[in-house]
């Protein structure tokens, strides 16, 4: 009798021990201090880890906007908010949309997803519209975003032509909020800067087409010699303006 109870006690304590040990072993990885929000912000790293943002990461990197976000998130007291379109969002754009954009427009497209201020999801529900983005005021475009609260803890974001819902915070905390969207917020580029629908079929007779291939196709204005240079300078100037905007 006595030996039975002691045996069962021993068994009990062994199972208890095991049950105590195994969750601990399992918990070891999650227990490792959650990668703190301290340390330098890395927007592409955050999106890379979340997965499914390959195109946006490529655009952020190519346009150097990633560096701007990282720097500003680190230095600004206001923080930053990034609306991150998924690869699905980019795949759902009409074919060739990105390729039709000039370099400058690609920069603006990316900046249209970057707000120079930290917004929690709840603050977006009541924010006064339109909300400034990093693209606001560029190239004469008023690229603001409108946010409207809907039922539950959900927010719609609109840039005029496109409206979509924010479901998910990839990264909720100050100084950098990152929200997932399933549509790309393509700014409404003014017709002056938009790539005109069909570049005039420049009929270069294939036999004699020698000479430098003219890449600038500015059908509206007579391309006078300084035209090309202006485009180049405009891009550089625009970029440095962005940077100045970020620094101030
Ligand atoms: C963040 O900003 C501080 C100054 O505010 C600077 O010393 C530090 O090097 C910056 N870190 C990064 C990763 O840029
Ligand atoms: C940010 O993360 C990306 C991808 O994880 C990495 O390639 C890059 O080196 C990181 N940048 C910085 C500044 O840590
Ligand atoms: C948000 O968008 C969805 C469709 O995308 C729409 O059904 C809903 O009414 C919108 N809510 C608000 C508050 O605009
Ligand atoms: C955003 O809201 C403002 C004010 O409500 C409105 O005037 C503007 O047309 C809206 N813009 C877009 C892109 O929806
Ligand atoms: C361009 O040239 C091709 C032949 O090379 C011709 O068929 C076509 O009609 C021409 N288009 C224009 C707009 O002149
Ligand atoms: C174009 O010009 C180069 C020299 O400038 C010449 O070598 C080449 O054969 C020319 N091609 C045609 C198609 O005329
Ligand atoms: C080129 O265009 C600019 C304005 O776009 C004008 O001021 C200038 O006179 C033009 N130059 C020539 C050579 O046509």
From TrEMBL:
Main subcellular location: membrane
Family annotation (PROSITE patterns): FAS1 (PS50213)
Domain FAS1 residues, every copy: 40-185
Bias (Low complexity) ranges: 192-213
SUPFAM superfamilies: FAS1 domain (SSF82153)
Sequence segments annotated as region (Disordered): 192-226
Subcellular location: Cell membrane
GO cellular component: plasma membrane; side of membrane
Positions of transmembrane segments: none
A family per Pfam: Fasciclin
Signal peptide: 1-27
InterPro entries hit by this protein: FAS1_dom_sf, FAS1_domain, FLA_A
One BP annotation, GO: plant-type secondary cell wall biogenesis
Membrane-protein topology: Lipid-anchor; GPI-anchor
The keyword Lipid biosynthesis belongs to this UniProt entry's keyword annotation: no
Keywords assigned: Cell membrane, Glycoprotein, GPI-anchor, Lipoprotein, Membrane, Proteoglycan, Signal
Record family assignment: Belongs to the fasciclin-like AGP family.
Purpose of the protein: May be a cell surface adhesion protein.
Protein name according to UniProt: FAS1 domain-containing protein
Organism of origin: Escallonia rubra
Source organism phylogeny: Eukaryota, Viridiplantae, Streptophyta, Embryophyta, Tracheophyta
């Amino acid at each position: 009798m006595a030996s039975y109870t002691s045996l069962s006690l021993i068994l009990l304590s062994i199972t208890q021990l095991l049950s105590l040990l195994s969750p601990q072993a399992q918990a070891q990885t999650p227990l490792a201090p959650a990668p703190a929000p301290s340390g330098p912000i890395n927007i592409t790293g955050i999106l890379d880890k979340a997965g499914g943002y390959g195109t946006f990461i490529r655009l952020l990197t190519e346009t150097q906007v990633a560096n701007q976000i990282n720097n500003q998130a680190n230095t600004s007291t206001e923080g930053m908010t990034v609306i991150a379109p998924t690869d699905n969002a980019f795949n759902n754009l009409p074919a060739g949309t990105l390729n039709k954009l000039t370099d400058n427009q690609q920069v603006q497209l990316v900046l249209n997803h970057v707000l120079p201020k930290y917004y929690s999801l709840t603050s977006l529900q009541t924010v006064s519209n339109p909300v400034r983005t990093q693209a606001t005021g560029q190239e004469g475009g008023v690229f603001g975003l409108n946010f409207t609260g809907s039922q539950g803890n959900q927010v719609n974001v609109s840039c005029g032509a496109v409206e979509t819902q924010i479901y998910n915070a990839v990264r909720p905390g100050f100084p950098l909020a990152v929200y997932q969207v399933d549509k790309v917020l393509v700014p409404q580029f003014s017709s002056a800067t938009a790539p005109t629908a069909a570049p005039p079929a420049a009929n270069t007779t294939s036999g004699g087409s020698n000479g430098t291939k003219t890449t600038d196709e500015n059908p509206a204005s007579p391309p006078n010699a300084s035209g090309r240079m202006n485009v180049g300078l405009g891009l550089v100037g625009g970029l440095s303006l962005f940077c100045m905007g970020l620094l101030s």
